[in-house]
Write a structure and sequence with these properties.
By secondary structure, this protein is α+β, with helices and mostly antiparallel strands. The chain is 27% helix and 21% strand. The chain folds into two domains: 2-272 and 545-567, Alpha-Beta Complex (Dipeptide-binding Protein, domain 1), CATH 3.90.76.10; 310-539, Dipeptide-binding Protein, Domain 3 (Dipeptide-binding Protein, domain 3, Roll), CATH 3.10.105.10. The chain has helices spanning 35-47, 76-85, 133-144, 165-169, 199-202, 213-218, 275-283, 295-300, 330-338, 342-350, 389-403, 418-434, 447-455, 474-477, 494-504, 512-528; strands spanning 2-5, 57-61, 90-92, 98-100, 103-109, 114-119, 180-184, 187-191, 236-240, 247-252, 266-271, 289-292, 306-319, 355-356, 408-415, 438-445, 461-466, 533-544, 548-549, 552-553, 560-561, 566-567.
Length: 568
């Protein structure tokens, strides 16, 4: 027996809220294209279906796009742009709930193990071909194919629990055995190992987006590297882009099934990594939205266009415990996290509403069976994570004695963007001031290089961030499972792994209250071992022109959605 769901709202014990800042999710003032596809773009620009507001939206990006391949992209900027021109089976509504997109309806088996998605008849690619169930099968098989080596393959195995995903990733089964089937052109069947309460919310995450296999093959290894090698099935069509581009342009897609709600004729992205230059561009009228931080906030906080919006990212420092003997010492790690004055970082440096954070899972992110916030208690790990200079010195001296040294030099790598540069500088000052004998050397680099260095363990300390991919604490805790590609510290703990596995596929997974308690236990293990030095939960201070409305902001998966934005 199956339950018919015509208008999906995520059936989960978890709800979403904006992190820290208390603002609305919708801003009131406040991501071979063949000749046919290119013509669609031109036609869209010319006609705009009579629905556009007449002016394009000019948006600032603080980091470049790393990849527009939905199965290879890993960063929020890339996800945002991909989602501008591609729909998944589901979308988020303004409140962050999962609602139908390419799926017109979905049947969920009574036991929660089979999902049958019915794809819209009017869903088409920008080259005129229909979006089919086979497009999802091809894309999802790519995601778990070990030869593709998608960093988000775990979303299909550990998180999504799709049948055979893990065996395929491990090389024990062929990708054709993944538990996803095209029953017919417009019917997609998905088999799970166990019920996953948040499964529908995964469907709006870009790694689950479809790819047209025939088009992919025609691109001959250049897929998603230019407008000619991308296809759209979403609100906009990509018509200007090249790798590492500082400008990206998209035009309204008149062939989009929901084109009537899209009012913008186009989107114009500008990558500006210097915050002062970005502010000047906004003030000159070249941007409609821009981020501000630090002293800029003091300058513009009374402007009607100023708003603070929860971004969902947890910023933290990751210690490399694989190759750096000093960081393999628990007392040294505890000294480092105790010497960090997070309040000073958020109040005196960022000034954007970001919240000091002392837990491995940020606050205001997910609520449990009793309606409580998983991380409301920011003092629950204060014995191992707080600002306490005296305690930091005590741990430091013990660690130095155990290592048989009086001095340590550590290099911290960080992104070459404005905010990370400022945060890295104050972190260096705080650590060196409190911990005598410590020298922190800073290395700034493009984000792509920093991520690669951390993945290969070619670092000592790394200033990094993680944004939630779905509304459950597992999106953070799962990072620390042994051999997870995002486990930058290369930490391993058998008890932690067992708890996470039991919360995913074991008996605990079936009991919401027991699962919540077990996830707390897992977090405590990681925090007690100082696997992560949490710093702050990001809140974006933004200037958004007062003639712009309808941008949707979310702390999960996709931070900004422009489908319903209007520029008057």
């Amino acid at each position: 027996m199956k339950k018919k769901i015509l208008s999906i709202v995520l059936a989960s014990v978890m709800t979403l809220s904006l992190i820290g800042c208390g603002s609305s999710a919708v801003s009131g003032v406040s991501q071979d294209q063949s000749g046919d596809a290119q013509q669609n773009s031109a036609d869209a620009s010319a006609s705009n279906n009579g629905e556009g507001s007449g002016e394009e939206l000019n948006v600032m990006l603080e980091t470049p796009v790393e990849s527009l391949d939905p199965q290879l992209a890993t960063d929020g900027t890339s996800f945002e742009v991909i989602a501008d021109y591609t729909d998944g089976l589901m979308q988020m509504d303004a409140d962050g709930q999962a609602v139908n997109a390419l799926a017109e309806s979905v049947d969920v088996a009574e036991d929660g193990l089979t999902y049958t998605f019915h794809i819209r008849e009017d869903a088409n690619w920008s080259n005129g071909e229909p979006v089919t169930a086979a497009d999802f099968v091809f894309a999802w098989q790519r995601a778990v194919d070990p030869e593709v080596a998608s960093e988000y393959s775990f979303m299909f195995s550990d998180i999504g629990q799709i049948v055979n995903a893990q065996d395929i990733i491990d090389g024990n089964k062929d990708k054709s055995e993944l538990g996803v089937t095209a029953v017919d052109d417009k019917t997609l069947e998905v088999k799970l190992n166990c019920p996953v309460s948040y499964f529908l919310s995964l469907m709006y995450f870009p790694t689950f987006y479809p790819v047209n296999e025939a088009f992919f093959d025609k691109c001959s290894g250049t897929f998603a590297t230019s407008p000619e090698t991308t296809l759209s099935n979403g609100a906009f069509i990509l018509d200007e882009y090249q790798p590492a581009a500082t400008t990206i342009h998209l035009t309204k897609n008149d062939s989009y099934y929901d084109a009537a709600v899209v009012k913008l004729p186009g989107l114009n992205y500008q990558v500006i990594q210097d915050s002062q230059q970005a502010l000047m561009s906004y003030q000159n009228g070249d941007l409609d939205t821009t981020l501000v931080n630090g002293e800029q906030v003091d300058q513009v906080k009374d402007d009607p266009a100023f708003t603070a919006i929860g971004a969902g990212y947890l910023w933290y420092i990751s210690p490399n415990m694989k190759d750096v003997k000093e960081l393999q010492n628990l007392n040294i790690r505890l000294a480092l996290t105790m010497a960090l004055n997070r309040e000073a970082i958020t109040t005196d440096v960022l000034k954007d509403g970001s919240a000091p954070t002392y837990t491995g899972v940020p606050m205001d992110f997910a609520t449990g069976p009793d309606g409580s916030d998983f991380s409301a208690d920011q003092k629950k790990f204060e014995d191992v994570c707080r600002y306490d200079a005296d305690q930091a010195v005590e741990y430091w001296n013990k660690g130095l004695e155990e290592l048989g040294t009086k001095e340590i030099t550590l290099t911290m790598i960080h992104d070459a963007d404005d905010a990370p540069i400022k945060v890295a500088q104050v972190v260096k000052e705080q650590l060196e001031t409190t911990l005598r004998g410590l020298t922190v050397e800073l290395q700034q680099m493009p984000k792509k290089e920093r991520v690669e260095r951390m993945q290969e363990a070619e670092f000592e300390l790394g200033l990094t961030r993680w944004g939630p991919d779905y509304a459950d604490p597992m999106t953070y805790l799962g990072m620390w499972v042994t051999n997870n590609p995002n486990n930058y510290g290369f930490w391993s703990n058998a008890e932690f792994d067992k708890i996470i596995a039991d919360c995913t596929t074991g008996e605990t997974a079936m009991d919401p209250e027991a699962r919540w308690a077990a996830l707390y236990d897992a977090e405590k293990i990681a925090m007690d071992d100082a696997v992560i030095f949490p710093l702050y939960t990001q809140c974006n201070a933004e200037l958004i022109s007062t003639n712009v409305t309808g941008i949707e902001f979310h702390p999960v998966a996709l931070n900004r959605v422009y489908k319903r934005a209007v520029k008057n």
